[in-house]
Design a protein that fits this description.
Blueprint: E1 9-14, H1 19-30, E2 34-41, E3 51-55, H2 61-71, E4 76-79, H3 101-122, E5 132-137, H4 153-176, E6 180-186, E7 189-190, E8 207-208, H5 210-223, E9 232-234, E10 239-240
Bound molecules: NADP nicotinamide-adenine-dinucleotide phosphate (NAP).
NADP nicotinamide-adenine-dinucleotide phosphate binds near residues 18, 21, 80 and 187.
Length: about 240
């Protein structure tokens, strides 16, 4: 893997306690071409070997700034944070009648504003001399074009807004760092805490392990070049319309 990146790749994974974030860290750790991984989490975790851990809550901009300073130059940044429900008051809406301003604010804060603040402080850390990538976990349900089922209003809106931010940031990044790529990623339906309450109607063959999904997404990132910056890509490399 990572044929298009420099040997000695320096990576950061934001949200390393998540099902998907954790699997990204494990893949990167096992790859001989990866030199270092900055793994962030909301509560302290043990690092070791190539993995350096740091506490980061995407709601705390000062903490994000400190983490970015600690990171130094990076070749790959993956934002794997996100929220859909919390097993309590926060549930994806089935109707407009369930729209709740507090729940919506929370979803937008984690899924949209959080990754935007990570971009604000980490995009400037992307290497300019070799290929570099900033990828944020989005979701196919954030595609306006693809929305035929309705429902999940806040989650869909948070990811649609994230997709728009990615496109907007890509235009600015092209000027500041023409070789760099910023993109959204759709991981498929992945067996994690986030999807577990909603897996009932998912056929077995369409429910991926985090290991499988992240391996495929890393292969996608390896193939993307600056001409593909600003898009949303599924785990199989197809571009999803906004
Ligand atoms: N699983 C799927 O089927 C699926 C499908 C489409 C898209 N996605 C997207 O993939 C991403 C990862 O999802 P997942 O399935 O791995 O979910 P997950 O297992 O629930 O992990 C979510 C991660 O987000 C972190 N997080 C939440 N709020 C945060 C905050 N304020 N600051 C920092 N970290 C925060 C969590 O940290 P804590 O451990 O501290 O709570 C956890 O590490 C999300 O953006 C999700 O929308 C997932």
């Amino acid at each position: 893997m990572f044929e298009s990146f420099r040997d000695g790749l320096r990576a950061a994974v934001i949200g390393s306690t998540g099902g998907i974030g954790g699997a990204f860290v494990r893949h990167l750790e096992q790859d001989a071409r990866v030199a270092s991984i900055l793994a962030t989490s909301r509560s302290p975790r043990e690092g070791g070997g190539k993995v350096c851990t740091i506490v980061l809550d995407t709601a705390d901009e000062a903490g994000i700034e400190r983490a970015a300073e600690k990171a130094g130059a990076l070749d790959l940044v993956i934002v794997a944070t996100g929220i859909l429900s919390d097993g309590d008051a926060l549930r994806p809406e089935k109707s407009w009648r369930q729209l709740d301003p507090q729940a919506m604010s929370r979803v937008l804060a984690v899924n949209t504003i959080g990754p935007a603040l990570i971009a604000k402080h980490f995009l400037g850390k992307l290497a300019k001399d070799e290929k570099s990538v900033f990828a944020s976990l989005s979701a196919r349900v954030g595609s306006i074009e693809d929305n035929r089922l309705g429902g999940w209003h806040a989650y869909r809106a948070s990811k649609a807004a994230l997709n728009q931010l990615i496109r907007t940031l890509s235009i600015e990044l092209r000027v500041r760092n023409p070789g760099a790529v910023i993109c959204g990623l759709h991981p498929g339906t992945v067996d994690t805490a986030l999807s577990r309450p909603f897996q009932n109607n998912v056929p077995e063959e369409r429910l991926f392990t985090a290991e499988k999904s992240t391996a495929r997404m890393l292969a996608v990132l390896d193939h993307l070049g600056p001409e593909q910056s600003g898009g949303l890509y599924a785990y199989d490399g197809t571009r999803i319309p906004f």
